Amino acid sequence: MLKRLSKIHQKFSPEKLKIISNIGWLVSERIFGMVINFVVVIYVVRYLGSANFGKLSYCISFVGLFEAIAKLGLDDIVVRNLVREKEYTNIILGSSFILKLIGSLVACSLIFISSLSFNNDWQTQLMTLIIALGLVFTSFDVIDYWFQSQVQSGAIAIVRSGQLILNSLAKLIFVIWQFPLIAFAWLILIDYLGKAIARIWVYWRHHYSLFDWRFNWSQARRLLKDSSPLILSGVMVAIYMKIDQVMLGNLANDQAVGNYAAAVRFSEIWYFIPIAICSSVYPAIIQAKQRSEQEYYSKLQQLYDLMVWIALAIAVPMTFVAKPLMIRLLGAEYAEAGEILAWHIWAGVFVFLGVARSKWLMVENFTVFSFATTSIGALTNVILNFLFIPTYQGNGAAIATVISYAVAAYFACIFYPPMFKTGWMLTKALFIPLRFRQNLVYFQAIKTKLL
């Protein structure tokens, strides 16, 4: 057995082994987190009830609408620059940190003003402001970007898992001791702080220091120039990913938001998979682009195909078991959440493809197109929510989400000439179950590596 594993190990290049190891760490961390969250969310949702859980979810979604301003669209830009310009690592990290800190303060100010204008419930306003303060600590996300650029996610994954355990235990204590609703908002803020401290610690453990970071106006301007279309794009992404719960809260009621939020928790729990895989192969895609266009697009097609296969493997069975699963886990009060989940789970197909396509857009620096597609998706979602929510409530919001995700991730490509090639690649990926010859090639390749 050990000899066979050794032979398999030798057949992979060091670069591929590094990617596989990185994906392994990220996926293991997320699966561990998924199991923990799966158990804890059940207790929290049952304890709060659909109305209170809906109110908390409304606050989280409201803050999420402004989160893109705190991020400034820098995520993939910083990773790309760290891979390409290793000699400027400390300047890139320092400049992006200051930019994100400024962005988070602006976001908090906008949330404060907006929450007072759009909601009259004092408890909802207070919880929104408490959660919003956590955005300040997301400035330390730049440490994650460095680990992504080095394809070294093992250490930080372990630390995040430890922090997840502590946060989950705190939630269970809150449920057992019957803490009030606002305590869960404070816990979210503490979780943001804990993540920042954990990132700083693991960075220091790797013998690096935040005091080595340097802010540079020229570097900051260049980062903002590349990311400026992505800031607006991120706002649009936030709108078409978060606006459904906000609109449900305004057009329906807290109970409708609670059912929808519960379904979304079980639907979006899988979204770590494309993020883990795509962030791990992103440096390899950049390097493939530098070597050969043919190799570059071949890797992209393989990535698109993989994304669809994984998404379908989740969506198909979940469609049939969604309602009995939600009733069994959360109680009869959440029966409607099962119906919503059966619709919403299909958004995952386009989310998986969208995450993969975003890496191609980043390599090609097509940030303007990214903004255009997300804007169309956001506008579609808002219009469809206005049409569907009054009649179908949570189910209508789920259907609107699936359609808007499809428009942004796929249909926008097949109607815009410069994107025809990518649109065709995504079409092939969506039909991967019917591409028997290609599946046989993939199977033979996997078999050869393993045997």
TrEMBL record:
The chain crosses the membrane at residues 20-45, 91-114, 126-147, 269-286, 306-328, 340-356, 368-389, 395-416. The keyword Transmembrane applies. InterPro entries: Polysacc_synth, PolySynth_Transporter. One of its GO terms (cellular component) is membrane. This is Polysaccharide biosynthesis protein. Pfam families: Polysacc_synt. Keywords: Membrane, Transmembrane, Transmembrane helix. It is a multi-pass membrane protein. The keyword Transmembrane applies. It is found in: Membrane.
